[in-house]
Design brief:
This protein is α/β, with parallel strands linked by helices and 716 residues long. The chain is built from 27 helices and 27 strands. The strands form five sheets. The chain has an eight-stranded mixed beta barrel. A hairpin with a 2-residue loop joins strand 12 and strand 13. The structure holds ligand C2E and calcium ion (2 copies). The site of ligand C2E has 22 residues, from strand 19, helix 16, helix 17 and strand 23.
């Protein structure tokens, strides 16, 4: 305050007024005098002053009333000092109630009064400064568009400033007293606490960002935090400024978009694609995966562009990009009725009419071919431009990781080469970088398609090969074997299609069909008076199918075949995995009476201890050990060992692939009682079985019996 502070002295006693003026003037104050209450109010209105010294006891108006009137008129800030009697406690109390700021007791020490008022002035000034600072802070806050919080060290809201309540995660009045963890989603609360910890150690922190989904949109926030010390020994609080940076994020996004995306189609551009391929190559290297890089070029695009103009060209490219997206949509596959996992595909536009696709996690080259076929199909549909139809097609090249390259640039280059090859071959086709692969992959795709239709059209059949009981001299049981007499390709052998059926999962419906057919045939033989056990092969994939047990039981019920007339054959490899599920399946089958045989036994690594734990009935000695009999001593030793092992486990043994009398006799000598092979009978149609059942066999006499046996065997 530059001008001297003006004090209004109110007293009816003239002497007191004079002394007071003298003392205050000496202390440097300007003084106005009033002789009573009315006069005081008048003077105050005429000359505004900064402080009032007010005598309590005045004839016209009591000091209290004057005080109350001044307070009402001048507001709460005006310091009013009451001059009261020395020990008059009551008047001190009343002065306080009427709004006085302070009091001075009589008798007044005139030497000190000036100093006393200076002290008062300083307190008053401090209060004014505080008020001003508050007002400035309030104004600053009003100007800050960001959310501002004060948090304690635990992240608990102490107070807040929220100019935009639309940015709050919860209604603002509910914040105080809660922690950020209670109000915000975990990732945002975590960002806050990290910022607090940084500010705790460094005094301030900036840059923590988080995304928040609010009712009217998704927002990004960035935090600036400063530590605010509290009283000595107390934990500090933190002032947290939470800035809405959504727009900045959007700008960053569009910049990235421009750098990594093609603006015409919205697809990733070459750079983004190469980056992605390199990343995926590293991942695939790590977990021995396979990738396909597919390079597509639109046939005939250049002509359209040249004749119909760039605008038309752009429209076609956009439509082509849409079709590419369409081609990798999972729904596509659902329509095909398979439940195999859909390949994940990343698309890109390299420029011009060149597009690429990265196919992740492919199991076989055909997976890439399948994607290419869908793309071909979609690109062949007419493009419509201003009511005019344009026909195009696509040439596609495919390079595979790891076979065709170990980095993005090489894979892309080789896919490009393969695409040129496809163009040379007359467009609208797909080539692998490796020409041999194109051939086999195409064949397998064709075969797969044929398999599907064979299943739909019921083209398969089942034949039965007898297993002979040497001691009894007659048929013991039969093994069901699938046949595929293809209308155009002739008989396709199981080994030429079972592996593909296994890979594509088609073995599940095919295997089910074989089982149903075999059970139905066996049930008919039983009803006709020839009860005969039938053995059915299960593929490893079927064995893994959780619905297997139920499926088998359903078919037994449906066909009326007793469970003990069914034997299931699985290869050693399918069951030897030391797996509780295997044991559960085998036990379930044993409990309901279905027998189990290990097929191709001796080719795997089954140990005696493994076999001991498994509820099996039969071991089928692989044909390769039978073929060397009777001369090959190693084969003899193996068959003997298998027989001894089976004997100790109480299992029966069937020798497979018995082609000669000598083999059969050698096996009989080794006490192998069940024999199967061309020597006895080739697999025959169901209708031929009853006849075979009436036959009796003996290995003692040689040629004549063999001749009669093979006469009966209808070759299929
Ligand atoms: P496998 O289970 O070991 O079946 C025996 C195979 O040996 C049959 O071949 C049979 O015709 C053949 N064979 C029988 N006796 C002789 C012989 O004396 N000499 C020779 N060289 N071969 C003989 P097939 O029918 O071609 O079946 C081949 C394989 O295909 C089967 O081997 C089996 O693993 C699989 N398979 C056949 N039918 C089915 C089926 O319905 N489901 C499943 N999952 N697999 C099947
Ligand atoms: Ca078998
Ligand atoms: Ca076998």
């Amino acid at each position: 305050m530059t001008a001297a502070m003006r004090i209004l002295v109110v007293d009816d006693d003239a002497t007191a007024r004079i002394w007071m003026r003298a003392a205050l003037s000496k202390a440097g104050f300007a003084v106005t005098l009033a002789v009573g209450g009315e006069d005081a109010l008048r003077q105050f209105r005429a000359t505004p002053c900064d402080m009032v010294m007010l005598d309590v006891d005045m004839p016209d108006m009591s000091g209290y009333d004057v005080c109350a009137a001044l307070r009402a008129e001048a507001g709460e800030l005006l310091p009013i000092v009451m001059v009261t009697g020395m020990d008059d406690l009551q008047s001190v109390e009343r002065a306080y109630e009427s709004g006085a700021t302070d009091f001075i007791a009589k008798p007044i020490n005139w030497a000190l009064i000036g100093h006393r008022v200076k002290y008062l002035e300083r307190g008053y000034q401090a209060m004014l400064d505080l008020r001003a600072a508050d007002a400035r802070n309030a104004a600053i806050l009003k100007a800050i568009p960001d959310l501002l919080f004060e948090l304690d060290a635990e992240g608990r809201y102490v107070n807040y400033h929220s100019p935009r309540s639309d940015l709050l995660a919860a209604p603002d009045e509910t914040f105080v007293g809660k922690t950020v963890a209670e109000v915000l989603p975990a990732h945002a609360a975590q960002a806050c606490m990290t910022a607090l910890q940084m500010a705790q150690s460094g005094g301030s922190s900036t840059g923590q960002q988080f995304e928040l989904v609010l009712p009217h949109g998704t927002f990004w926030f960035e935090l600036s935090v400063s530590r605010k010390s509290n009283g000595p020994g107390e934990a500090p609080n933190f002032i947290v400024l939470s800035r809405d940076i959504t727009e900045r994020k959007q700008a960053e996004h569009s910049i990235r978009q421009l750098a990594f995306f093609d603006s015409l189609t919205g697809l990733p551009n070459r750079q983004a694609f190469l980056d992605r391929v390199d990343r995926e190559v590293r991942r695939a290297q790590h977990n021995a995966g396979q990738l396909g890089v597919l390079f597509m070029d639109l046939d005939g695009f250049k002509t359209v562009n040249d004749t119909l103009g760039h605008n038309a060209g752009d429209q076609i490219l956009q439509a082509a990009a849409d079709r590419l997206r369409e081609s990798i949509r999972p729904t596509d596959l659902v329509a095909r009725g398979t439940d195999e996992a859909y390949a994940e595909v990343e698309l890109a536009r390299l420029g011009g009419d060149e597009f690429t696709a990265l196919i992740l996690d492919i199991k076989r080259p055909e997976d890439a071919l399948a994607v290419a076929q869908r793309i071909h199909h979609l690109m062949r549909q007419p493009f419509v431009l201003d009511g005019r139809q344009v026909m195009l097609s696509a040439s596609i090249g495919v390079a595979l990781f790891p076979n065709d390259g170990a980095d993005a640039a090489t894979l892309l280059k080789h896919a490009d080469t393969a695409m040129y090859h496809a163009k040379e071959l007359g467009r609208d086709n797909c080539q692998f970088y490796s020409a041999a692969l194109t051939q086999t992959a195409m064949e397998r795709m064709d075969l797969e398609a044929l398999l599907r239709t064979a299943l739909e059209r019921n083209e398969f059949s089942v034949v039965y090969q007898p297993q002979f009981d040497v001691a009894a001299g007659r048929i013991h049981s039969v093994e069901a074997l699938i046949r595929w007499p293809h209308p155009l390709r002739g008989l396709i052998a199981p080994l030429d299609f079972i592996p593909l059926a296994e890979e594509t999962g088609l073995i599940l419906p095919i295997g089910q069909w074989v089982l149903r057919t075999a059970c139905a045939d066996a049930a008919r033989w039983m009803r006709d008076g020839y009860p005969l056990r039938v053995a059915v092969n299960l593929s490893p994939l079927q064995f893994k199918d959780p619905k297997l047990v139920q499926m088998v039981l359903d078919i037994l019920t449906e066909t009326g075949l007793p469970a003990d007339l069914l034997e299931l054959e699985v290869t050693e490899g399918a069951v030897m995995a030391d797996n509780p599920a295997t044991m559960a399946i085998l036990t379930a089958f044993r409990d309901c009476g279905v027998r189990f045989a290990l097929d191709d036994f001796g080719t795997g690594y089954s140990s005696l201890s493994y076999l001991k734990r498994m509820p099996l009935s039969n071991l089928k000695v692989d044909r390769s050990f039978v073929s060397g009999l009777p001369d090959d001593s190693e084969n003899r030793a193996i068959v003997r060992a298998i027989l001894a092992m089976a004997d100790s486990l109480g299992l029966s043994v069937t020798a497979e692939g018995v082609e000669t009398l000598e083999q059969a006799q050698a096996l009989k000598t080794m006490a192998c009682n069940l024999l199967q092979g061309y020597y006895f009978s080739r697999p025959v149609p169901a209708a031929a079985i009853p006849e075979l059942l009436t036959r009796r066999w003996s290995l003692d006499a040689a040629e004549p019996q063999r001749a009669s046996a093979s006469r009966l065997s209808v070759e299929v």
